[in-house]
Design brief:
Blueprint: E1 6-17, E2 20-31, E3 35-39, H1 46-53, E4 59-66, E5 69-70, H2 76-81, E6 84-87, H3 99-105, H4 117-123, H5 140-152, E7 158-162, H6 170-185, E8 189-194, H7 197-203, E9 206-211, E10 214-219, H8 221-226, H9 228-235
Parallel strand pairs: 3-8, 3-9, 6-7, 7-8
Antiparallel strand pairs: 1-2, 1-4, 4-5, 9-10
Length: 237
Amino acid sequence: MRGTKCELKVSEIHTYLGTGHILQGISLEVNEGEIVASLGRNGMGKTTLIRSIMHFYGTSRGTISVGGQEITHMNPFQIARIGVGLVPQGRCIFTSLTTRENLEIGKQTLRQGQWTMDRILTIFPALKNRLRNQAGNLSGGEQQMLAIGRMLMGNPRIALMDEPSEGLSPLLVWELAAVINELKQQHVSVLLTEQNVNFAAHISDYIYLINNGTVVYESEPEKLAENDTVKIRYLGI
């Protein structure tokens, strides 16, 4: 049985981009301390889902709530301040600022908690000697560490991660898995989108498959692994 405390609840949301009806009634839940993966081919609506939760894109119908509090029409900074953290696709770090300055920006949510600069540098020791370097001069793996560290500086209760393993070496992918599992141990809920199905299945407690803006399948990762018909039809594997 999945957890009993729902942290993030998305109910029948519809999102349009211009005339395109991208999300067509998506519903999903993430419970406390649970890792949930949203999988699907490119262009199926996974990133739009993350951006709709953060209200970068307004939803025309449906509701989104965090810990029972509706956030559907809140501004992004308000959503961040109630504890929703974001690691966007492509990292979106501030390349002209130093590593330290990027991390400090994460504190703008004004939330207090266990995720301090020292703790983040313990998790990501590669950043410790790069604090004075411009973020644009970091390697791709270091930039992803920085994006995750910046998110953690806001002490989130829910972490949204859009394609976190994208562009990482196999070794760094599994280091990332360890960090995400550490979040789970600290009762931080995680919703991630992924193209790397093996990675997502390895770390997730529950999986939703998205196709053409709708949820077409959901299960524990073990059940998905046994369902060749679904994997071939919606994931191409």
